[in-house]
Amino acid sequence: MYFANNNSAALFPDAMLVVACDHGFGNMKTPHTCFKSGVLASDHPPVVNHDVLVYDKRYYVIGENQKEFSAMKGSDQDYYILTLAAIAEEMKLLSLTEARVWLAVGLPLTWVGQQKEMFRTYMLQRDHVDFTYRDEEYHVDIVGCDVYPQGFAAVAGILSEFHGTNMLCDIGNGTMNIMYINDGKPIISKCYTEKYGVNQCMLKVRENLLHTFGTAVDDSVIERVLRTGTADIGAQYLSVIRDSATEYVDGIFRKLREHEYNEELMKLYIVGGGGCLVSNFGTYDANRVTINTDISATAKGYEMLAKRSLRKKEVLLYGEG
Questions:
Q1: Predicted TM-score (pTM) of this structure
Q2: Positions in the chain whose pLDDT score sits under 50
Q3: Pairing state of beta strands 39-42 and 58-62?
Q4: CA–CA separation, 20 vs 36, rounded Å?
Q5: Among 119, 131, 283, 307, which is most exposed with the fewest C-beta within 10 angstroms?
Q6: What whole-number distance in Å separates Cα of residue 108 and Cα of residue 117?
């Protein structure tokens, strides 16, 4: 039985809504939404009241400012505020303003061991949260949180398809995570995290444009080229951006080889926002490299893993009964 309106929350007050969030340095992703990982805080209402979250008498413009890379994701309140926005986005799709929420989140592969409990505590800092997002009031009980390894979650549901030796590469904005999967079994001793995300490509593109033309190009234009391979700009500018992106993708494969990647001996499975750069600017054997272009793939994996765990505990999930 499936429910799609507020009445289900009243009829089944104990039902749990699983909200999965992939906390990227460039974008926040849920199974159904994606928005910039930026937060601009103020004690006063902003001039333009769009994408504004009000919490604890402060105003937060979601999507403003670029989230800086940090090796500790709970080092400030930004990701907590972004999580509230993500919860609201998912609840809005279900026409909900009140819910009992179980969070499903993740960390880079080699960070999970040391930071898992800290990040879980960070997510559970308040049992009950009242906030306003886009002029809608939300009342949320955050009752639990699971923390999963980033990237791996995107393929957790299809491990049976990984025959022989495989390398999983999750290319995010801040980091690139690598994991070996042999005959459907993750090899924990062969997990690596590199600070070589898409932001490194952006920095190189800006540097090359400034050096070549002495001018700055709006990030939205650069992002369009990286995402699609082209943009409506002069050929000389497009050439510099494409050459810079190609150099970055060559660097991706160089780092993979440093971790013993050999296309003759293993298959490569790429997830994350950086997959489009490999697709647009990389040279590879399409028969041995799979690129998952679904930017929400990891968040969907978190959701699947959390729901599977909660069902085993016979927890009533929202939308199921």
A1: 0.89
A2: 1-12
A3: antiparallel
A4: 16
A5: 283
A6: 14
